[in-house]
# Entry
Amino acid sequence: NYQGTLVVSAGGSMSSSRLAHYCEGNQIFERIEVLDGQARRVYRHNDQVLTLWPTAKIARTEQRDAVALFPAVLSGSADQLFDRYEMIAETGDRVAGYDAAVFLLRPRDGHRFAQRLWADQGSGLLLRADVLAPDGRVLETAAFTDLTIGIKSQPESVLKPMKKLDGYRVMRSAPQRTDLSAEGWQLKTPVPGFTQISCVKRSLEAAGDSDRNLAVDVLQTIFSDGLTHVSVFIEPLREDRHRPGAAAFGATHALRQALGSHWVTVMGDVPMATLKQFAAALERTR
# Structure
């Protein structure tokens, strides 16, 4: 159990969130309050996630697969991870008042970025993570600026807000587990080191549409190398709102393009060349 303030710096901007995480047996409870920009709160009980925008009085409920995000690290086995990264122990440091062991995970190829990780020596909790460019520049940093480990569990502080939605417009996203091949797609050439860990189809309201009943089916497939992730989104092409292009923000890169009558978005904390490999390998089978 822990709580603290998490600050993310990327692309010349910073954002901060207040985070609390509780475990009781195999039950996980989490709440996140975004402290900058538009007010937003996220509550999670296991795989059930509620996101609230208090000013707009909008709530989105959804079920999410357990994909590792900060401060978690691995989404695969250590053996698989070390096939793709070399781990180098560095000089210890302190983060948010805690003594930390520091490790550099250096990629064995050009398909991924290096990461430097600071882990609390007492609990193993990840305190800071830097994503590094090939020339050593820090592309993105996520770190606790204040932190308390070992707090008393407060599951009701998560469960109560998840039940009180009076006055909110509730948008429900019910993902359906599926597979690329079942949806008529395949990666004709796998991208080295990445394995599919999730594939879901969900119906989402299209942003900016005046008709709230208008929804679009989006297929999302997540690939992981054990440390980082790449998401591939596929949806029907709408020429009135889709524009091809590429973008980068800190370590996160995104590639958008049409593929026949579909629109494909590939994004992740990997080099743009890796995203282009995913996009080039994706093909329609029916």
In short: The CA atoms of residues 24 and 173 lie 27 Å apart.
